[in-house]
Amino acid sequence: QVQLVESGGGSVQPGGSLRLSCATRGFLFNMYSCAWYRQAPGKQREMVARIDSMSATSYTNPVKGRFTISRDNAKNTVFLQMNSLNPVDTAVYLCSCTRGPLYAPYWGRGTQVTVSP
Q1: CA atoms of 78 and 72, how far apart (whole Å)
Q2: How many CA atoms lie within 13 A of 72 on its CB side?
């Protein structure tokens, strides 16, 4: 059974840091690209960062230099290190993995990140 379980969210003050984890099971993780998305209330879901099976990474402009995506294939886990957080980063963060553009992605249920004074 495929599972993606996010953890590490919480409440933090502006300027703080959080490290999100997405533990996966049920598929050949090392062959999949994974990404972190976020969805704030009333806004569309947006991709924050992506890492492919060769660990090449890409980021949306607002988080470049602040967020770092990484993966540990031995643990079937993808991470998102978030630094210098600000209130606009407040959202539910979701993990997604896919074999490629012709395949439906797997999704986790998300973890809440709240940045407030």
Answers
A1: 6
A2: 8
